[in-house]
């Protein structure tokens, strides 16, 4: 699990800048993917090629049959999936950290200059450093969700075309240097099938959470626009209250 430490620490920072659904998605990623992959799946697939038995002793035949059945091992495929699916979220984190740094500089400038000299004020963060997901940040956040959802679906489809969703205990191969059509048998196919289905279910849950979060953010954006519109209408109808209770 040590090799996942850096990625986990970065994703942990995203939690404080995500919605409730986004935090659930990160929890699913941590517990049901990274931890399960490190704790159990690597041990199940550790004997994948060495324990494959073929009905021939021809040198090199077992290697080409294994390569034919598994162009990329399930473990490496899932590792790539985690990295690719996490990348849009990490790009969003980079944007958030840039905004925080920029607005902290603004606050330092505000503390050392008079109000007449201040051109811009912090828009996304408050005095405590809490980030509000709105404007460009909201657009970046929604884009990251859409991309990670598309990547998730792409990996599900890719897994289906590469090996399917059930581990077949028998591999039939007729590639050179095999002298004839060879049959090879995998170790622990049932246990591996359980892991494959489990990871598939987690991927589907991730897609559903992404769809839910997109709808949530769309509703949030619509509500904010409606609130601004109502406020503008109220100010237009009561111009004398422009600096009064309506703005508050």
UniProtKB/TrEMBL annotation:
One gap junction consists of a cluster of closely packed pairs of transmembrane channels, the connexons, through which materials of low MW diffuse from one cell to a neighboring cell. It holds the Pfam family Connexin. Gene3D superfamilies: Gap junction channel protein cysteine-rich domain. It is found in: Cell junction, Gap junction; Cell membrane. GO terms for biological process: cell-cell signaling. Residues 43-76 form the Connexin N-terminal domain. Residues 151-217 form the Connexin cysteine-rich domain. A connexon is composed of a hexamer of connexins. Its main location: other. It is a multi-pass membrane protein. The chain crosses the membrane at residues 20-41, 78-100, 145-162, 194-219. One of its GO terms (molecular function) is gap junction channel activity. Belongs to the connexin family. This is Gap junction protein. It comes from the Eukaryota. GO terms for cellular component: connexin complex. Keywords: Cell junction, Cell membrane, Gap junction, Membrane, Transmembrane, Transmembrane helix.
């Amino acid at each position: 699990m040590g090799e996942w430490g850096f990625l986990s620490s970065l994703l942990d920072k995203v939690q404080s800048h995500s919605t409730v659904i986004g935090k659930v998605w990160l929890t699913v990623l941590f517990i049901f993917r990274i931890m399960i992959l490190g704790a159990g799946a690597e041990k199940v697939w550790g004997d994948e090629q060495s324990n494959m038995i073929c009905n021939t002793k021809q040198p090199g035949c077992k290697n080409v049959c294994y390569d034919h059945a598994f162009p990329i091992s399930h473990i490496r495929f899932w590792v790539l999936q985690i990295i690719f699916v996490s990348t849009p979220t990490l790009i969003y984190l980079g944007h958030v950290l840039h905004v925080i740094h920029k607005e902290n500089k603004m606050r330092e400038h505000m503390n050392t200059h008079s109000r007449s000299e201040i051109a811009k004020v912090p828009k996304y963060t408050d005095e405590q450093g809490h980030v509000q997901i709105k404007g460009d940040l909201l657009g970046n956040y929604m884009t990251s969700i859409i991309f990670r959802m598309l990547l998730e679906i792409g990996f599900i489809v890719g897994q289906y075309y590469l090996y399917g969703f059930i581990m077949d205990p028998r591999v039939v191969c007729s590639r050179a240097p095999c002298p004839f059509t060879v049959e090879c048998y995998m170790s622990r196919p049932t246990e591996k099938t359980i892991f494959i289905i489990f990871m598939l279910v987690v991927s589907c849950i991730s897609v559903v959470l992404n769809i839910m979060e997109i709808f949530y953010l769309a509703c949030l954006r619509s509500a904010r626009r409606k609130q601004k519109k109502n406020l503008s209408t109220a100010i237009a109808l009561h111009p004398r209250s422009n600096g009064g209770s309506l703005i508050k």
